[in-house]
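task queued by scheduler; priority normal; single chain, no ligands, no partner chains; default sampling; output format set to structure tokens
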Amino acid sequence: MSALLNHIQAQQDTACKLANVLHAASLLDDVQIAPDAVSRLIGEALTLARNISINLDCVSLPEGAA
């Protein structure tokens, strides 16, 4: 697999993690339990979203892909 495809797959993996973290936060928030856990999950979601954004910036693409 090319470096670009590997890079894209890594971003897809991170996006799936982000979706799961947000789903977990939503479930906990719906039943109004573990507000501290919800806060930590939101923090993790922000980190994952930032990483996706940074990694999809054209300056972060693998050599020769931009």
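post-processing summary
- Residues 8-60 form one domain.
- The chain has a mean pLDDT of 94.
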